[in-house]
Amino acid sequence: MFLHTSRLQFEAKPAQPDALFARKLQELIGGAWGEMTVTMQYLFQGWNCRMEGKYKDLIMDVATEEIGHVEMLATMVARLLEGAPSEVTAKAVEDPVVAAVVGGMDVQQAIVSGGGPTLSDSNGVPWNGRFIVASGNLMADFRANVAAEAQGRLQTARLYNMTDDPGVRDMLKFNLARDTAHQNMWLAAIEELQEDGLEGPIAPSALFDEEHQEHAGTIWHNSDGTAGPEGRWASGPTPDGTHEFSYLMDPEPLGDKASAPKPDPLLYATSPANLGLIEKAIRKLT
Amino acid sequence: MFLHTSRLQFEAKPAQPDALFARKLQELIGGAWGEMTVTMQYLFQGWNCRMEGKYKDLIMDVATEEIGHVEMLATMVARLLEGAPSEVTAKAVEDPVVAAVVGGMDVQQAIVSGGGPTLSDSNGVPWNGRFIVASGNLMADFRANVAAEAQGRLQTARLYNMTDDPGVRDMLKFNLARDTAHQNMWLAAIEELQEDGLEGPIAPSALFDEEHQEHAGTIWHNSDGTAGPEGRWASGPTPDGTHEFSYLMDPEPLGDKASAPKPDPLLYATSPANLGLIEKAIRKLT
Amino acid sequence: MFLHTSRLQFEAKPAQPDALFARKLQELIGGAWGEMTVTMQYLFQGWNCRMEGKYKDLIMDVATEEIGHVEMLATMVARLLEGAPSEVTAKAVEDPVVAAVVGGMDVQQAIVSGGGPTLSDSNGVPWNGRFIVASGNLMADFRANVAAEAQGRLQTARLYNMTDDPGVRDMLKFNLARDTAHQNMWLAAIEELQEDGLEGPIAPSALFDEEHQEHAGTIWHNSDGTAGPEGRWASGPTPDGTHEFSYLMDPEPLGDKASAPKPDPLLYATSPANLGLIEKAIRKLT
Amino acid sequence: MFLHTSRLQFEAKPAQPDALFARKLQELIGGAWGEMTVTMQYLFQGWNCRMEGKYKDLIMDVATEEIGHVEMLATMVARLLEGAPSEVTAKAVEDPVVAAVVGGMDVQQAIVSGGGPTLSDSNGVPWNGRFIVASGNLMADFRANVAAEAQGRLQTARLYNMTDDPGVRDMLKFNLARDTAHQNMWLAAIEELQEDGLEGPIAPSALFDEEHQEHAGTIWHNSDGTAGPEGRWASGPTPDGTHEFSYLMDPEPLGDKASAPKPDPLLYATSPANLGLIEKAIRKLT
Amino acid sequence: MFLHTSRLQFEAKPAQPDALFARKLQELIGGAWGEMTVTMQYLFQGWNCRMEGKYKDLIMDVATEEIGHVEMLATMVARLLEGAPSEVTAKAVEDPVVAAVVGGMDVQQAIVSGGGPTLSDSNGVPWNGRFIVASGNLMADFRANVAAEAQGRLQTARLYNMTDDPGVRDMLKFNLARDTAHQNMWLAAIEELQEDGLEGPIAPSALFDEEHQEHAGTIWHNSDGTAGPEGRWASGPTPDGTHEFSYLMDPEPLGDKASAPKPDPLLYATSPANLGLIEKAIRKLT
Amino acid sequence: MFLHTSRLQFEAKPAQPDALFARKLQELIGGAWGEMTVTMQYLFQGWNCRMEGKYKDLIMDVATEEIGHVEMLATMVARLLEGAPSEVTAKAVEDPVVAAVVGGMDVQQAIVSGGGPTLSDSNGVPWNGRFIVASGNLMADFRANVAAEAQGRLQTARLYNMTDDPGVRDMLKFNLARDTAHQNMWLAAIEELQEDGLEGPIAPSALFDEEHQEHAGTIWHNSDGTAGPEGRWASGPTPDGTHEFSYLMDPEPLGDKASAPKPDPLLYATSPANLGLIEKAIRKLT
């Protein structure tokens, strides 16, 4: 069960409105790598965690924090939209800056939300539930979490450069710091999973015997760039210590020709079996 | 530019058809973490790479390989569907196994594709372009790549247990091995990015000074589980070596009350300014 | 079966083109609360109505009218786009107003539709079938209909303020009036359902005995705002007359700890059962 | 900012697993009218509320409760999936009941979530952000809230009949009660908005003068069912008291013929202007 | 403006219910190539048609008919669902046929629609507005219309084989005939467009001079299958009579190496410019 | 299996950056009719082709070429974005042209992709797998392919007029030529299918006897435009030679009244059976 306090985790007060930036911030609310994604990803991972204790408790701590990040951004967007043009375009446009704003603002923030955020990204595409993963395998999920925090911090950094509003920047500095903390935290959790002997570096830590081991260390050279083999992935031990890397320079297909089976006549695929039948069918009608 | 050979990268021959499994394999084709995702993610990362050389060439090598994985799975699905029930249900159902198949098969594989795969996941939801990321920042993207290969291998492993067809398993053993190779490869590439001095462990490697550093190492205890602080993320240096972890046990909000600004009258939000006006508006009409 | 007359239900003639407003009008065509939604919602409700007579006939009357609203808007959009910039940007831009238009217009209206509407909202997101509901329960559906007409009229009102074109406003005045009529109509239908003894105010009018009645009148105070209990929902009889409202000021969870069951080993969740196995698996390989 | 306790708002303990029902419950998690929708709808309404006090505080109380409903359902789904078939179909199928389960279960709950819920509906379609509305106009939004609670209770009632598991039913009885409470609560809030003079019954309470009043009380008879005029929406005062209802029995279109403007040659619409040009273009080439 | 009669264009009476087939029929309602698609595609084409007269009038005739096809299918689905299992699974399952039905039916038809259709395809994915096109160019659009009628008839034919219910088949025989009529009709309209001199066979009939003509007749041999050049597309005049076909057997790329431009430092792409900076940034912090 | 060369199929070098055009080009990458669609449509058609030989080999040749078209466009977009405004709006805006660019550019190309393309259309909506079809019936699929190439060439032609950059136009001239070649090619393949006796002009070439033939040649006059019967689709033989066209001027519905069956009480539809029960249920509670 959840409880809420009306105070924000961190301040979200712009020095002045900026409707164009309000649109851009939507990416951090409802983008594929935004706060909504980490909120729901962590909540579902916590609820799906099969082991009581430190991992689950950590996940729920962070998940609960993230709801508050959506709240900060939603509040910031509403404040950035104060006084945004909501009237006749010609009246609203006075100089190129206003023109850029009128052209670039998210019109649904006005028409649909009355000057507030939507649950969409910066192009107005709604957030959706396929953006999250909660597989039950903590190694696989924590790798996804590091990725999410990395993409999230990267987008925040780009947005940071797109504003010089001290209030907005103040909040983004907090967001940047939290993304740093969370990247470090998930990296530490990945180390700990291995130290605890719960997971190896490769997810899932199973079926290594069954897999075709001769293909578990090779990189296939399917493109003609020549520098691929210069990296440490071209030779030497793999990071998990189980194989030697090698670079397969002239890859040959190992399978037969791709072909689909004989068609089911009830499904009407084109096939040699049709020969003559069509003509007959048409002739019969005429 | 691309070239194609009709032979498959690896064999994709089931010992016998299995329409229910053909539906499940759709997850590896068009699921959020399926082969289509890694194909397009790597292609766009390669095209978006801002540095010629080993990283870009590696990405394009792997991307090009992955198109062939979609091909293997598409071929396997068509073969697993050979002879799948395409007629009246009552005729098709003879025993519980067939009933399960008739109930559980993906009907669009018959109705839409005529016994072949669709570009959808195992619940028939189409693949979409938001599943990929190609940010230009290789550290952020390689983290996403490790995550994708980890989730992909995990799903492949689960599917491996859901069949005992030796032909299907043979192909999945190849897929498992490639996912192992690629996880190791992206992990190695992450190490190399750091050794080359191109990126630090935290993406992006910028704005560390600007971010609010006092919040860059703390974990907020927003949920009442007590074991969170038992992990190595609760104290000691962060993995990137820049901060000390600490666990904030009684987190207090740092911001003011969340509130939205005064409404724009042209947007008709409910507000105290409406007091009396409504009644007047209605009275006037009647 | 349907018939069509080429004349519009109401005039849709702008005084002059306005490409930016043509984009905004997309919200009323293909937005979640636009005319397409009410068209399809009412059609499916009519077809799904389990009772011949006045309710079903009313629904079909209104549904059929709504198709004509999509038609009016589609025509208006095409006319507003007459002469919209379809050439090189630099040529098209002469002053800030044009710049705003060039920046803010829906480029798909030109590239995809050749100067006509798409079936999308004002951010270009396509309309989709999950926006409608036709549950068969008329009380639940009429409540959804009032909501749809209310949001629709609200959006129309906002758009009305964003133009001063007399022709556009003339059409919007008709739309506003129809939304007023339809809100009143669905409200009247809700009253009538109750007067007819077909439904009570709470949908569905069943399972009241079975539900946990001690929880059917309380509002849980899960956020720290203090004014919640000042409303009439905090005490006194509920609108349906079956319970007394009360405000639960210090809510305590009634359930146990949330936990997920023991993992299935074939699904590879992280669990204490993994302890030692991973290390062994990796050791075996090397 | 939010806080979390590990205990569930209400108990979520099935007497025994039921993988087919676990799929059906997805509707209440990620369906268009499920708990995720009300959670996010109320949160965004609260953050977008332009008036401090009882309405905003109420919204935030209920919003915060709803996150806990998603949690209850997510936990229930994971428990219902305990022991669900995750192996070879032929082994898993023993009798028709198992066949129905194997055919009907949500395969992504196994393949993607490892025996837990996804953020999707009962057909596996992901939840998306367009399902919510937070317009800032409380009358319009509360009408949407009543609708959501009504559809939600209706779906819960249907699901209640699809199980006889006492543990599942126990939780659903709580959900039913909460949906009853919340329907009553939003109905009371709608009354209060009017009593407080903040909104009239028709949203928004504006532009009544401007709208074409002669069309604000008529129902158009566009379908040939004859019983439409038998309802109270056919005559007498409208519920908001501003107009008289009337039924327009032989509706005539009021507008001109629908037509699109002359095409822009740069957009290549088919038009009489093409006459002869095409032939010339082709002749020139050959 | 539209009018409606309560009678169906053709009869839609199944001999008996069949919940599994009711799910399959969803493909014809809300699938990408279903009746909803042609309805909306033709309506928008008619509204977007830039030339009064026979083409526009034809489009509107057919569009209006198609709404009635959705109606027939919606009615059929509701009737096929009569008596569908809506209770406890174990009670509902008696033999393998029922098991297949319980496993394979669309659960949302019960939970959401109360025994009626949804606006989704046979996997429950909602119809969406990107399935239609109305470009204003009649040649391009009529080609899309032939394609839609062809795919639609193909799916109908497949469904025809999946039932032996005489009532369902009776309706499908009508649908098949209409799809035949409409394929022929659009083919005739394509001929007429050319005879009228309005469009050539290639859409749009413009820019032939500007395009690089040396590439307007070649087929590139990018895959290693050897039979491609055996078709009439390998030599001889093109169907539009403007070029000679040829098969380019050893295609060479004509462009330079694909490369992305130098990165913008404010966007944090990985680049050689990062060398040394990262280390410095991290060192400074510690 | 696929191979890749780093050189582009054709040059993709803009004379200078143009961020607004970079957004528009997204339509050709990830639009419903863009290069991604033909790439995946042809690949899946090739893999699903049930007949070895010239048709399959042709499809795979073209499919493989199309991946390279996505590559050209992705490269072009990245180059057009060089130097695009990525900083504070006010700094970036200097004149109306820049304002139009700042307002109209795709902000996700900066925030998400760091100055590169996304897999979305020109409004930022992600590409999705439902845009493709691979039915196994080559006649139906080739008709879809002609349609795709026609819409694709039309959009390319429109975009050609929106730029005067010689480098961009040079690439578009190649694209136009390829779309011409491919339209001709699929038209030739449609002829060949018929000459080979594999398919007739109407897809599928089956069930002509079974369909209700009296409805296979009529056009229903459901809209009141009078010119429909002036076309060659109103009389004379159908293009496939099997029927005579006729125009049904006063169409009468052939079916009974649309009605839904009696409701299942467990699904709570509103019905006369509710009469009195509701009142009793409520009275009991109070």
From TrEMBL, chains A, B, C, D, E, F:
Record: residues binding Mn(2+) 1: E35, H69, E149, H182
What's the superkingdom here?
Bacteria
- Residues annotated as binding Ca(2+) are D57, D61, S223, G225
InterPro entries referenced in this protein's UniProt entry, alphabetically: Ferritin-like (IPR012347), Ferritin-like_SF (IPR009078), Mn_catalase (IPR007760), Mn_catalase_dom (IPR039377)
- Per the annotation, how and in what number is the cofactor bound? Binds 2 manganese ions per subunit.
Which positions in this protein are listed as binding Mn(2+) 2? E66
Give one Pfam family: Mn_catalase
**Does Nucleus count among this protein's keywords?**
no
Region annotated Disordered, chain positions? 221-261
Q: Which GO terms describe its molecular function?
A: catalase activity; metal ion binding
Q: Does the keyword Cell inner membrane apply?
A: no
**Enzyme Commission (EC) number:** 1.11.1.6
What is the required cofactor set for this protein? Mn(2+); Ca(2+)
Q: Which UniProt keywords apply?
A: Calcium, Manganese, Metal-binding, Oxidoreductase, Peroxidase
Q: Which family does it belong to?
A: Belongs to the manganese catalase family.
Query: By what name is this protein known?
Result: Mn-containing catalase
